[in-house]
Amino acid sequence: MVVRSTIMDTNSFRAEDADSLDNETRALTDKRERLLGESYRLFYRRPVHLVKGEGQYLWDASGKKYLDVYNNVASIGHCHPAVIEAVNQQMRSLNTHTRYLHERILNYSEDILGTMPQAVNKAMYMCTGSEANDLAIRVAQSYSGGTGIIVSQEAYHGTSQLTSGCSPALGSGQPLAATTRLIATPDHYRLAGKDVGAWFAQQMQMQIDDMKANGIKFAGFLADSIFSSDGVLPGEPGFLKPAIDVVHQNGGIFIADEVQPGFARTGEAFWGFARHDIVPDVVTTGKPMGNGIPVSGLFAKADVLAAFSDQIPYFNTFGGNPVAMAAAEAVLDVIRTEELQQHSLTVGNQLKAELSKLIDRYECVGDVRGAGLFIGFELVTDKESKAPNKALALDLIERLRDKGVLTSVAGPHGNVLKLRPPLAFQTQDIDWLVGALDESLQEARS
């Protein structure tokens, strides 16, 4: 029996829901089923037909306005004028690949590397986060001479052959690579009272030892430092450092997957890994880098990258093209001029404080945690057992959708609301989100 994918199937439209749809929506879902591959999924029992976006808001075909509390791809806000203008201007002059000289890729590389630790000083570009992580795994294997990759228990790192083999969140229908090992999730909510840093470092060594016992040489640890697919688990700043020390002591490298926690999202630092005072060997990014324009990057220590790039030429046809670089430059400029890192910290703390008030009001609200505008809202059966309450979480997702708030769930049990709006999210949006959530919890309790 195939286990459903936590990131694809937990909050998805299913055929048995079709009879409840209005005629127009039913016609679209039927046409989609006829034309598109069966692997695709739609959100919600009653899918949303979106036609417009601006900042943190979306509108459907009927004109209903929604608050987007899920979409980190449009990182600085839907249809941001600065990105539209930059892309439009560059499209009018040139768009080609990186085997010709062009200033944009060089200027952007200087700029983005300036946000990294000094040791991370080389850049390469792709079109998707999957491609960036795929290349990062190849770099890790070249540098270490090994093949073994460690990821968290519910990690998602991409859809290529290599990355899907390191993405347990895709479900058992997508087998993991024989050289992949899963490390226990640093669930601070359930590990309360423990030294999570020491515990996680011990878990890391156990997985490396298991590889060795099975004739697999360790290559590296690939992680999103906020463990978003595992249920949004930021932890205390610095707790990751002992585990990364273990990685290096065993000859592996640390790949920081910054697709989700990067670009000022956590507020506490520009990059998610920087919360932990660690220097990754490789950093990967995805489409939030260009506010949804297909662009991604790999940034690495020169000696680590050299183990791969001195032996193998790499060419991603339109990775790093001038239009994509224009979008990426615009995103960096907006983050600075609109002071979005500080904004993320300030508004994120305000949002977390308001959400935390619901813990005392509802026995089913177990934990509220996060960093900046990246918050996990965990639903449980009761506070004593901390048993995951997936059914309630899925019910709340649907109720929130009806109240114009769009989000989804995360974690191995699908019981954590993943609250991750575009950074355009404002203080005045907190009342809409928290009010809708409060009302939904009351309705579910009655």
From TrEMBL:
Pfam families: Aminotran_3 (PF00202). Its cofactor is pyridoxal 5'-phosphate. Belongs to the class-III pyridoxal-phosphate-dependent aminotransferase family. This is Aminotransferase class III-fold pyridoxal phosphate-dependent enzyme. InterPro entries: Aminotrans_3, Aminotrans_3_PPA_site, PyrdxlP-dep_Trfase, PyrdxlP-dep_Trfase_major, PyrdxlP-dep_Trfase_small. Keywords: Aminotransferase, Pyridoxal phosphate, Transferase. GO terms for molecular function: pyridoxal phosphate binding; transaminase activity.
